[in-house]
Amino acid sequence: MDVDNVLKNTKLVKRYLDCLLDRGRCEKNGKDWKVQPVYSSGSSAISFNFLKISEFAMENRRLAVAREEEQDDRMKTFIFKGEGHTLGNAIRTIILKNPDVIFCGYTIPHPSENKLHLRIETKSISAVDALREGLEQLQNLSDHILKTFETAVVDYKSNQMEV
Question: Which Pfam families match (predicted)?
Fold first, then answer.
């Protein structure tokens, strides 16, 4: 998937975001962006005692949830494949404005890895809900910025025609 072309097309961005937030139908490539739990299973029970990311899941998912010792839905680490500081800083800043969020931080594990780890800890809502709210707010902010920019471009061009 060519992310740059997707981001340039506001209709596609809206469709992918609606898919990610379970507000609409998912395109074939959009399903790869959805949050999918990743876990390691033992012989008789699922073991959550260590951080384990399945390589298969990471190769086929744009976003995965790392299962850790905490079985609490209020504490999760999300792994975004193919993202960097641009998304990390923006989504961290927005999520931290939520009064129910205790902690939100991100890291790029290694410069040669194309992954972003986003950790969210909340008081009462689930970390997935905090991420969804943050993504919705980021989408709304991006829509507003785009609309404002497009209006300014039209105004500038019309002023240039008058001169």
Answer: OS-D, RNA_pol_L_2
DSSP state of 111: T
Q: Determine the topology of domain 3-148 in CATH.
A: Gyrase A; domain 2 (3.30.1360)
Is 57:37 a contact under the CB 8 Å cutoff? Answer: no
Give the model confidence (pLDDT) of 92-130 as tens digits: 999 999 999 999 999 998 888 889 999 999 999 999 999
CA–CA distance, 40 with 57 (Å, rounded to integer):
11
Query: Is the pTM above the cut of 0.70?
Result: no
- Which residue ranges make up each domain of the chain? 3-148
Contact 63, 16 (CB under 8 A): no
Cα–Cα distance for residue pair 125/57, rounded to 1 Å: 26
Query: Contacts by 142-149 with C-beta closer than 8 Å and gap 24+?
Result: 142/13, 143/10, 146/10
